[in-house]
Design goal:
The protein is α+β, with helices and mostly antiparallel strands and 237 residues long. It is 30% helix and 24% strand. It has one domain. It has seven helices and 13 strands.
């Protein structure tokens, strides 16, 4: 369960945030949401697939970390084994809170008080002795602002993919060195055949909107599935 509260210097003065990465800190997750402006960094490390939010039915892009629920093949004893960690992971335990539909209030930073990173005894302080935001908190707020803008951009990106029928459901079958097999369902990828049939004016409009490069980044990222298989194979050595 999550218990989000708007960040408040009086109320949360004593809180600290545990850093680093590990299962005990909530990082044993199969995937995390990502967004087009992040695809360049993400595709160097992770496959980018698309899936549906079970609550809304809306599509979102996801950086894949494992091949089954609660599995993150990038977690090691010494931390997270990758050169880039997606922003949705980096931002924990913070979240951008926005008003309801028609509410023109600016977004604000919230904190999940039930997150395992939140502590009163260890970690990075949120506020200094004067009650001012710490450098750590300022960095997280800057990340949240970047993330908020990226997710807003992602809405138009997903709408455009659906408009041009560029998402197709896939089934991924894996075979491992120990003889076991795994089938991954519930994900979508860029429909490459459909993509390569798009006319020049459509490709130009995608490019102008900043969507064309992320589309090809998502396609290229599928080569990272081989790395996931190898990481899974090493678990059984």
């Amino acid at each position: 369960m999550s218990q989000y509260e708007t960040l408040n210097r009086e109320k949360h003065q004593e809180l600290r945030i545990k850093t680093g990465y590990g299962a005990a800190l909530g990082d044993a997750v199969m995937y995390a949401m990502t967004y087009p402006l992040e695809f360049r960094d993400v595709q160097n490390c992770y496959p980018i697939l698309f899936t549906k939010d079970p609550n809304t039915g809306g599509f979102f892009a996801a950086a894949l970390f494992g091949l089954e629920a609660d599995q993150n093949l990038f977690l090691k004893d010494e931390g997270w084994d990758a050169t880039y960690i997606p922003a949705l992971v980096q931002r924990q335990p913070f979240l951008i809170a926005t008003g309801g539909e028609g509410d023109d209030k600016p977004p604000v930073a919230s904190i999940d008080l039930d997150h395992p990173r939140v502590s009163k005894d260890e970690g990075e302080a949120l506020f200094d002795s004067e009650g001012e935001p710490s450098e750590f908190l300022n960095q997280k707020i800057a990340l949240l602002d970047k993330l908020h803008r990226g997710l807003q951009h992602s809405v138009g990106f997903i709408d455009t993919l659906l408009q041009h029928e560029l998402l197709e459901q896939i089934t991924l079958d894996f075979a491992f060195n120990d003889g076991s097999k795994k089938t991954l369902q519930g994900f979508y990828s860029i429909a490459e055949e459909r993509l390569y049939q798009l006319k020049g004016d459509v490709l130009e409009s995608l490019n102008r909107a900043g969507y064309l490069q992320p589309v090809f980044m998502a396609v290229a990222s599928l080569s990272r599935l081989r790395d996931l298989i190898e990481r899974r194979n090493r678990l059984r050595v």
